[in-house]
From TrEMBL:
Residue intervals of the ABC transporter domain: 9-250
Coiled coil feature spans: none
PROSITE patterns per the UniProt record, alphabetical: ABC_TRANSPORTER_1 (PS00211), ABC_TRANSPORTER_2 (PS50893)
Keywords, alphabetical: ATP-binding, Nucleotide-binding, Transport
Protein's UniProt name: ABC transporter ATP-binding protein
One GO location term (cellular component): plasma membrane
Organism in which the protein naturally occurs: Pacificitalea manganoxidans
Keyword ATP-binding (UniProt): yes
Entry's Gene Ontology BP terms: D-alanine transmembrane transport; L-alanine transport; L-isoleucine import across plasma membrane; L-valine import across plasma membrane
Amino acid sequence: MDPIREPILRVESLTKSYDGFLAVNDVSFDVAPGELKALIGPNGAGKSTCFNMLMGQLKPTRGTVTFDGRAITGLKPRQIWRLGVGRTFQITGTYQSMSVIENVQMALISHHRRIFSVAPYAWKLYRDEAMEFLATVGMEAQADRPCSILAYGDLKRLELAIALTHRPRLLLMDEPTAGMAPSARIELMQLTADIVREQGVSVLFTEHDMDVVFAHAHHIMVLNRGQLIADGDAAAVRANPQVQEVYLGGGTLFKEADHA
Ligand SMILES: Nc1ncnc2c1ncn2[C@@H]1O[C@H](COP(=O)(O)OP(=O)(O)OP(=O)(O)O)[C@@H](O)[C@H]1O
C-alpha cells in the first residue's frame, strides 16, 4: 500500500465474542483508496461476522473501525451508508415488479432524499442519470425490461449499479458471484475491477471462488477461525504455508479450494 495515502478503511483489533466463542478475534487491516481487496476463508471463518460489524449491523465486542479518518464503530447501518460505505448482498434486493431503470431511479430518489410523493416527476428527472449508471454496468439495452425476467447475472450487475447510485467510496460485496456460472463470475468481477480503476472506489469482497479472487484482487486477506492469518498480494498469500495448510492441508494449488 502507498504509505503516503491514508487508508479509506482502518480496522483495529476487531473482535466478536459469542459467549466466549471468538467468531472474529483481534482482526486488524487497512483498505487503501482505489484498492480491490478480498477477504477469504473457509466456512465459519468469520467473514460475514466481520462484514456485519463493518456495516454496523453487529456491535463489536472490542475494536474500532475508522472510515476516511472518522470512527464509525457503533454507528447505525444507515449512518455508515450515508457516510459513503455501500454494500451488495448475496441475495439481490431488486424490485421484481419494476423495470431495470425504475429500480435504479428508485435508488436515485433515495440518494437525492426525494420522497415518493414526487415520484411521477422524479421518474422523469432521474432517467438520464439512471441510464448513466446502467451504462457503467453495460445494461442500457435492458433498461425497460421487467426485473422478473432478468438472468441472475444481469440482476447482480443491476445490483451493482444500484449500489453505485449512492456514490460510495467503499463498497462491501458479500460473495458477489454466489450462484453464478463460472464465466459470469469472472465477467462480474472484471466489471467490478474496471469500476474500481475508473472511479477510484475501494472494494472489499468475500468470495469462495479462488479463480475470481486470484484473478482480480489487488490484495487478499485470509481469515481462519476468526483470526487473520495472511494479508498480502496473490503471490505472498499463495506461498503462505499457513494458508496452504488451511485450504489444502499443505498442498500448493488453489484450484480445489472453490467452495471450501
Ligand atoms: N449469532 C451467533 N451466535 C453464535 N455463533 C455465531 C453467531 N453468528 C455466527 N456465529 C459463529 O461464528 C463463526 C463465524 O461465522 P460467519 O458466518 O461469520 O463465518 P463465514 O466466514 O461468513 O462463513 P460462510 O463462508 O459459511 O458464510 C461460525 O462458527 C458461526 O457459527
